[in-house]
Amino acid sequence: MENSSNESEKYPNGQKNAYESAKEESDLSKNFERLVAISDYNAADEKQLSFSRGENILVVERVNQDWLWANIEGSLGYVPANHVEHPARVEEMEKWQDEEYFESYCHMRLHLEMLGDVARTEAYRRAVVCNVDFVRGKTVLDVGCGSGILSMFCAREGQARHVYAVEASSLADHLPGVLQENNLEDKVTVIKGRIETVSLPETVDIIISEWMGTFLLFEYMIDSVIFARDNWLSPGGVMWPTYAQLFLFPCSVPELYKQKIGVWKQQYGFSFSTLKAKAVEDFFKRPTIDYDLEPCNYLCKGQSIVLLDMKNLAVPKLELWSCNIKFRVEKAGVFHGFGSWFDVEFHSPPNDTNVNDTPQPVVLSTSPDAPKTHWKNAIFMLDEPLEVEEGADIEGTVKVIRNEDFRRHMSIWFEFNLSGESVEGMHICKEFKLWR
After folding, report:
1. Known catalytic residue at 387
2. Is the peptide bond before 12 cis (omega within 30 degrees of 0)?
3. 85, 167, 219, 345: which one is catalytic?
4. Would residue 219 show up in a list of annotated catalytic residues for this protein?
5. Whole-prediction pTM
6. Helix (H, G, I), strand (E, B) or coil at 343
7. 116-128 pLDDT, tens per residue?
8. Residue 237, Cβ neighbours under 10 Å: how many?
């Protein structure tokens, strides 16, 4: 009785039971299987749980192959099994993607292609040369330096005090020899590793990087550049490129359509038209990325669908974004799909003495009107080409969604209406994967 009295005084109003229950629940949770959400989920009814990508989920019971009975922060409910994964598997997947990406850049074929891209390489060189008065004596960070060409431009033409050349692929092992044969080993330091994991001895005045990919964003190297900016750029520092802009336009590409689809009409005297639907699925479910568009492919002028300010851009803004599109056809023809290109601009730092003296930005463009580049153009082909007359309207939305699992990949959705004398009220919706 005495012990019971003491315990009542120590845990008044039944608090002992609540405490012990919480402790037991905590101990029990240690035995639960812990998974991680790999995508968002909105519960369909009160028996299910909603959750966001990255949340921890404790599995109380595996009901079947499709559903789990789970605990999320004290709430119990059903969770779809295909939205969760073991933490080790998630980590392994992310590591594999990075290793696959970085090691693809250790092959000389890619660097030969980039160095041979005169428009690309000369634009970066001009950005340095036109701003030599600013670069001189400054520190520079080259993110993903590859062959080291941009670092060497900054060190030699730009007369930078020092350049830190960061490269995650095994190509970094060969760069000290390149610097030595160009007498730049004292001006450029090669740092092997991801920018997210390496350390620099100081902050920098300039970050330069050639991060652009197919459709501007593919591979999302831009994340690493933003990380470098947030962690290593001095206040008042400069980002090169400074701005990036992505454009879209309705295009007519009869040669491409004939090459991929028209060929199935007849071969060697035999008809293969039955295979047309299969060909459309195989060739046009992803954008065509190896095509050089020409001015003759325009059905009307292009429209900017996104403008990125590299000094202020945040990574979450790249997860999902959309833009309304509206085009008026300027010449009658066959509408095969949408072509795209991007421009990047290298701006000079503001001139404190006379703003009017600030030079015009250097522009690198991949448009059909510009010199050809190794990026070529991305084309989003419709399943069926459409005849359009001058004055027809194409109006709708383009949406870009980053892949939640394969973080360097994306999906691009087009939904639009085509209206004109011959195609009044036609509605089209199509998704393209780049890549998964």
Report:
1. no
2. no
3. 219
4. yes
5. 0.79
6. strand
7. 999 999 999 999 9
8. 19
